[in-house]
Amino acid sequence: MIQYINYLSLLIIPLFILFTIWYGTFKKIRVYDSFIAGAKEGPGIVLKIFPYLLAIFVAIKGFQASGAFEAVRNVFHSSFASLDIPLEVFSMSIIKPLSGSASTALFTDIVKTAGPDSIATKMTAVIMGSAETTFFVLAVYLGAVSIKKTRYLLPVCLVADFVGIVVAVAVVRWIF
Amino acid sequence: MNVIWLVLLSISIVFAIVTGNLEPFTKSIFEGAKSAVEISLFLLGVVSVWMGITRILEDSGLIYRIAHLFRPVMSRLFRNIPGDHPSITAITLNVLANLFGLGNAATPLGIKAMQELDSLNEEKGTVTYEMMIFIVINTASIQLIPFSVIGILAGYGAANPAAIVLPVLIATVISAMAALLILFTFRKILK
């Protein structure tokens, strides 16, 4: 079943591109020229996003390297222990919204140290699958259209992330 | 974002001074810059490819057909977007790409969706409610099969790596609905 869906998801982009270019040709569009005209917009968009990405990456890397991240984690560790939730879940909940590559590295480490069938692995796996790198998404999407006033978007995203982690823990407890 | 950035950097610098982590901190600033450049270069490629492909969709008129097709579903969430607006297609394609775990396609299509949504924005530079719905759906990341997670689990010899699929699906659907609910609540309170 999984392999079948995996194959399907591999098939989806090539088929979509094939359909798009043939539909365009059928509608008497010079698809090559259209593609070039569209692709021309790419560099401008990325240039617009770049300063937003830069600001977020510098702040996040600095936060991790300064020891502040460790300190915050240690403060919250004790309260997690009292709730009988594996400490790994907490580390993952902080890392996941900040960085995709760092959370993958952390997850691999958890699987290695806690064991592939441990409850810590299962909880962090669900967080990995159901949460997003919120700050990256915000930087890229808001940067693309030069949004400076975010109104109440940030608190909504942070509360939603928190709820997402609570849900992930609860679902794993319920199923396994 | 202004406050977050200010607080994050200030805390980091004070901590770096107190704990004597000044050298790694300074190094990390430039490492952060390097990551931003690397990711931007990667984005430059995928975004340009998808901008090219969506331009074919626009020129051939397919984008309006897809928008029309998904209008009934999307109109419930995005009430203020008119009829066959191209933003519906961009949003739909982004959601589908996320659903199938196609991250490389999802981000560029999401950028496209934001641009289309911005064309309806009367107050440029300020996020609209529709954009917020879109971003909240995205950060909740509804995904059918988390392939990378299953891959890692299988790599380290988990008894049944695919067993994670169902809990992920349940968690992701509940948290997506919760995220929308939180957004609605914030809007109600702050209005």
Q: Tell me the number of helical segments of chain B per DSSP (H or I, 4 or more residues long).
A: 8
Low-confidence stretches of chain B: none
> Tell me, what's the shape of chain A?
globular
Unreliable stretches of chain A: none
Measured distance between first and last alpha carbons of chain A: 21 Å
Report the C-alpha radius of gyration of chain B, rounded: 20 Å
The level of helicity of chain B is over 70%
Record field, number of beta strands of chain A: 0
The counted number of beta strands of chain B is 0
How would you describe the overall organization of this protein?
With 176 residues, chain A is mainly α. Chain A has 2 domains: 1-39; 41-175, no CATH class. Chain A is built from 9 helices and no strands. The two termini of chain A are 21 Å apart. The mean pLDDT of chain A is 88. In chain B, helix 3 crosses helix 4 (86-99), helix 4 runs antiparallel to helix 5 and helix 6 (129-140) runs antiparallel to helix 8. Chain B is built from 8 helices and no strands. With 191 residues, chain B is mainly alpha-helical. Chains A and B meet through helix 1, helix 2, helix 3, helix 6 and helix 7 of A and helix 1, helix 2, helix 5, helix 6 and helix 7 of B.
Write the layout of secondary structure elements.
The complex is a heterodimer of chains A (176) and B (191).
Chain A: H1 2-26, H2 31-39, H3 41-65, H4 68-82, H5 87-98, H6 100-114, H7 119-130, H8 134-144, H9 153-175
Helix pairs in contact in A: 3-8, 4-5, 5-6, 5-7, 6-7, 7-9
Chain B: H1 2-19, H2 22-60, H3 62-77, H4 86-99, H5 103-118, H6 129-140, H7 147-155, H8 165-190
Helix pairs in contact in B: 1-2, 2-5, 3-4, 4-5, 5-6, 6-8
